[in-house]
Amino acid sequence: MEKNDPRTYGKHIVQYPMDYSLCAGCTTCEIVCTLTHDGLVSPSYNRIFVDRGTRSMVHHILSCQHCSDHPCYNACPKKDKAMCIDENNIVYVNEDECVGCGLCQKACVFEPSRINMVKSADKKQRKAKKCDMCRTRPEGPACVQWCPVRCIGLSTDPLPWEVESK
Amino acid sequence: MSEMRYGYVGKIARINLTTSTVEMISTFDYVPEYIGGRLVCNKIFWDNVKPGTGALDPENMLIYMTGATTATGIPTGGRSVFTGISPNSFPEQYVWSGMGGWLGAELKFAGFDGFIIEGKAEKHTYIYIEDGKVELLPADDLWGLMVHPTQKKLEEKHGKDVKSMVIGPAGENLMRNATVTTSNDSVAAKGGFGAVFGSKNLKAITVRGHGVVRPYDIDKLFELRMKMANPTMRPCPVVREATHGMDGNMIPVEGGWLRGQVACSHGCNQHCNRLMMDMKSAFSDERINQVEKCVGIFAYGYQEDCSWSPIQNFETERNHFLPCKMLSMENPPPDFEDPYAPELFKQVRGDIVNFWKPDFDKGSVMMDMCNQYGIDKWDVIVWFMTWLSMCKQEGLLEDMDFGMEVDVENEEFVKYFLDMITYRKGKYGPIFAEGMARAIRTLGKEKFGDSIYHGRYSQMINKPLDLPVSLETAWGHSFHWQGRGFEGSIYKAGWVAHSLELMTSTRDIMTIAHFHDDYENFLKYRDDPYHSRELVDAVIFNENKAELKDSVTTCEWQSPDIYWPDMEAQMYEAATGIPTTQEDLDFASERSRLIFRAILIRNFGRTREMEVNAVFPALTIPDTFGEVATWEEWNDLVDLYYEVKDWDKETGWPTREVYEKYGLKYIADELEALGKLPQ
Question: How far is Cα B328 from Cα A135, in angstroms, rounded to an integer?
Answer without folding.
Answer: 34
